[in-house]
């Protein structure tokens, strides 16, 4: 029954089209439904975007929080002022010794410049800075204090060896 | 054509012989001998070349070989109990050419040695005494020596074999290689050179800036390792009450321990390194900030101490 009705409708539409009649029109207004459908999709996609933005904001907050807390951690360390003073004293004393050694060598004619172990001296100086910075965060780490002392003495030892090499090998 | 080739070859060979003859003729030959006390203090100085120093059971000092072509003579004198063997050089700043000193020195086995060189390779064999050798750019090799031994080179390699007593080996840019060391106390130091040693010493110190350290040890009472960026690795047995410390900036520290371990263990990494503990089931705690880790644990009776700290290197504690 329904099949024959559909078939009749189709035949009528074909005939109308063949006779050049106007284009077939829907039996009811469909645009309102289409509009609703599009709006719903848009709403759904903006909801998803909101979730993305919310997650990103959470991430930023979390990273910022951790960074802020880690930056704050050394400040609240009660040992830090004493450690800072000791550190400044040790590094200053080392710098004075270093300058004294260089002045002594300059007095006997060496300008303190040599390629020999220059890279290692540079490495030691960078390590002194690195260990000093870490000691501000870990003032109770005895091993780090010892390491700093060793780095100080090692730098002076290398300066000496630079001088010995420059002085002796000049003769050859 | 063949005749021409023969002539050219013969001329080349002949001129080579003549040239080498002139070169050797420039070097003064020495062959001297003196009676000396058994415990004589010997001061040896040479600027460049090769010097071999051997101990003997007899009480004489002997010097044989050729002097540097720039040498003005040889000081070979005994003043009281001090023997001087010095290759005297011209006063100049440029010594070029290969015709350097080549000497063999024989001394009483119990003679105390103080040896200095600039670009001289030294070989020191068979002494039971205090031996100090310093060279700037020369290599040093000591074998079968017992006593207070100090071998220092700035840019040369330092090698030891069958050394005993108290041993100190140092080089700035050269490597240190020590085999069959039977010292009680030994100390190795380098700046950029590697340290590779096998010793039965119970007290050992090894330090470097950028070189690597590898130690095969026996029973250790005291072991100290220090490094800036080089890696340090030690294999040993930890005595009860033994103490091991390792410190580095960015180098890794690996301790492989044989036998039973009885120690309080403390390991700390301040930066991005990690701690691996295979000595016990204890695990390192990571910092709450995600950077750095620490391990505090007691193994066995806890009579010994193991303390290792690095800024950003890895720490590895294992049983060997």
From TrEMBL, chain A:
Residues annotated as transmembrane: 48-71
Report which superkingdom the organism of origin falls in: Bacteria
Q: Which UniProt keywords apply?
A: Membrane, Transmembrane, Transmembrane helix
What is the official name of this protein in its record? Answer: Uncharacterized protein
Q: Which organism is it from?
A: Pseudidiomarina homiensis
């Amino acid at each position: 029954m329904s099949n024959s009705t559909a078939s009749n409708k189709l035949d009528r539409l074909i005939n109308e089209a063949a006779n050049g009649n106007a284009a077939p029109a829907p039996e009811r207004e469909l645009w309102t439904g289409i509009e609703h459908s599009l709006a719903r999709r848009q709403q759904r996609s903006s909801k998803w975007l909101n979730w993305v933005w919310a997650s990103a904001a959470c991430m930023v907050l979390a990273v910022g929080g951790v960074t802020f807390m880690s930056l704050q951690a050394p400040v609240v360390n009660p040992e830090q002022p004493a450690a800072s003073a000791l550190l400044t004293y040790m590094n200053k004393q080392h710098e004075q010794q270093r300058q004294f050694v260089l002045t002594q060598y300059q007095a006997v004619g060496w300008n303190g410049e040599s390629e020999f172990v220059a890279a290692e001296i540079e490495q030691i100086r960078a390590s002194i800075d690195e260990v000093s910075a870490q000691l501000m965060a870990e003032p109770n780490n005895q091993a780090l204090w010892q390491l700093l002392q060793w780095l100080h003495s090692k730098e002076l030892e290398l300066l000496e060896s630079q001088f010995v090499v420059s002085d002796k090998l000049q003769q050859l | 054509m063949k005749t021409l080739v023969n002539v050219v070859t013969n001329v080349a060979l002949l001129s080579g012989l003549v040239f080498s003859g002139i070169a050797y003729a420039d070097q003064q030959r020495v062959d001297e001998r003196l009676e000396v006390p058994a415990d004589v203090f010997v001061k040896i100085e040479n600027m460049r070349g090769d010097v071999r120093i051997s101990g003997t059971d007899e009480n004489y000092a002997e010097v044989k070989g050729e002097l540097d072509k720039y040498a003005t003579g040889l000081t070979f004198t005994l003043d009281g109990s001090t023997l001087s063997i010095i290759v005297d050089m011209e006063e100049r700043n440029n010594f070029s050419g290969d015709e350097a000193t080549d000497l063999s020195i024989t001394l009483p086995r119990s003679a105390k040695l103080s040896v200095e060189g600039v670009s001289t390779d030294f070989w020191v064999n068979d002494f039971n005494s205090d031996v100090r050798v310093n060279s700037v750019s020369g290599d040093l090799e000591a074998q079968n020596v017992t006593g207070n031994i100090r071998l220092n080179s700035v840019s040369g390699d330092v090698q030891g074999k069958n050394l005993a007593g108290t041993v100190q080996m140092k080089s700035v840019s050269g490597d240190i290689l020590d085999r069959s060391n039977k010292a009680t106390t030994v100390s190795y130091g380098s700046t950029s050179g590697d340290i590779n040693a096998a010793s039965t010493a119970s007290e050992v110190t090894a330090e470097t800036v950028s070189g690597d350290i590898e130690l095969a040890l026996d029973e250790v009472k005291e072991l100290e390792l220090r490094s800036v960026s080089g890696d340090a690795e030690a294999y040993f047995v930890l005595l009860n009450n033994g103490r091991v410390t390792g410190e580095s900036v960015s180098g890794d520290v690996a301790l492989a321990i044989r036998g039973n371990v009885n120690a309080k263990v403390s390991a700390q990494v301040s930066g991005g390194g990690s701690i691996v503990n295979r000595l016990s089931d204890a695990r390192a705690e990571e910092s709450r900030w995600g950077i750095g880790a620490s391990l505090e644990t007691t193994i066995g009776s806890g009579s010994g101490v193991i303390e290792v700290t690095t800024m950003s290197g890895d720490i590895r504690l294992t049983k060997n």
